[in-house]
Structure formats: C-alpha cells, structure tokens
Write a structure and sequence with these properties.
Distance between the termini: 15 Å
Low-confidence stretches: none
CATH class: Alpha Beta
Structural class: alpha/beta
Oligomer: single chain
CATH architecture: Alpha-Beta Complex
Radius of gyration: 18 Å
Number of strands: 6
CATH topology: Maf protein
Largest sheet: 6 strands, mixed
Shape: globular
Strand order of the largest sheet: 2-1-3-4-5-6
Strand content: 15-25%
Mean pLDDT: 91
Number of domains: 1
Helix content: 25-40%
Number of helices: 6
C-alpha cells in the first residue's frame, strides 16, 4: 500500500529532521519541499503564527497538489506585552545575529526584576490540503528570561530562556530534553495524534494526487 506523502514546507534542514522524527510513527511519507520542486516561499506577512504557517503550507499545496505542513513560532515576553511574538526572527531589526537579538532583548529587560520576567515560546503547526482543508495545532513552553546567556547548545533565544519544566535554559538542555517540552514538539505531537484518527487520515488523503 502506497503511503500518503506529506510535504514539510520549510527549507531549514534541522527543522525538517525534527518534523520527520516527530512524525515517524504516523505512517506518512514525510518529504521536503525541495523534493517536490519547491525552493522559494512567499513573504510571511500574517498577524499570527497560524497565518504565517498557512502562507507556507498553502503555497506548497497549491504548487504540488499534496498536503503540506508548516510551522511558525515566536517568543512572548510578559514584560514586553507579548513581544516580540510574530516578529521574533526580526526583533531589533533586519540582519542581526542570534547573539545581537538576545542582547537587544536583554537591554529591554535590564531593569525588570526576576518575578516579572515570565515568557513562553509558542508554535503553531498548520496543515493545508489540496481539497482546501486547513487544520492548526498549537504548542507552548513556559519559562522566564534570564539576565544573561547560559549553555552552549540550541539556537535563537535558547541561551536566555529558562524552561519552567526543565529548570535549565534550553541551551543547557540536551536535544532530547528540549524536545520533550518544546513548543514545536507539543504542536507536532497534537498533529500526529490527529493524523492517526479516521478524520485525520481522510483529510490527508482527500484531494491529494499521486505522481
């Protein structure tokens, strides 16, 4: 029996591996966007994580006739009113490195005491199908912002994000520890559970064409 193909709408190889690992038990054939001829994506101009993820997933589905899965995520800091949020990757301006973005965030929080440095990572995973179906799944990981970076692993804001569940920064945690509580991991788990249901299987198969 031919497995249903599912395209991950990203050009990020690390993220692709994470998707494949999370969905390994679903029975789906998870493939990269480049495997089906998609190497460019429209600009993400949505006002929410779900809207930005749908931009990518919908683009791939329209071009390939296959169901596509995409994500968007961000860091929300209580003391900044939920910022940077959907602007996380562009926080502080264009062209900054991860370290420069962290430094910019820490400067904004310089006078904020420990008890008011609450934050969370939020991820939305969105499925788009050729039949026009859209499903969204969300995950959150609670924590707080440290006064300085800790740990050498991870990426982005991981060194200054203290995970409530782990008691360490994401950059101090092993990859397995981080995945167990991460926002994207939770959203992908919710998708995988839905995909295993009759409703999910039907939605993924509906309207998809095979080569």
């Amino acid at each position: 029996m031919t497995r249903q193909r599912l395209v991950v709408a990203t050009l990020n190889q690390g993220k692709l591996r994470e998707f494949k690992e999370a969905l390994a038990g679903t029975g789906l054939e998870v493939v990269a966007a480049t495997d089906v001829g998609v190497s460019e994506f429209p600009e993400e101009t949505g006002a929410s994580y779900e809207e930005n993820a749908l931009v990518k997933a919908g683009h791939v589905t329209a071009l390939t006739g296959l169901p596509a899965l995409a994500d968007d995520s961000g860091l929300e800091v209580d003391a900044l009113g939920g910022a940077p949020g959907v602007y996380t990757a562009r926080f502080g301006g264009a062209g900054l490195t991860d370290g420069e973005r962290m430094a910019h965030l820490l400067r904004r929080l310089q006078k904020v005491p420990d008890g008011e440095r609450g934050a969370r990572f939020v991820a939305a995973v969105v499925l788009a199908t050729p039949a026009g179906g859209v499903m969204a799944f969300r995950g959150e990981s609670a924590g707080s912002i440290l006064h300085g970076p800790r740990g050498a692993d991870g990426f982005g804001y991981d060194p200054i994000f203290l995970s409530t569940e782990l008691g360490t920064s994401f950059a101090e945690a092993t990859l397995e520890q981080k995945r167990s509580v991460s926002h994207r991991g939770q959203a992908l788990k919710a998708f995988a559970e839905w995909a295993a249901t009759a409703e999910g299987s039907s939605a993924l198969a509906e309207g998809a064409r095979s080569d």
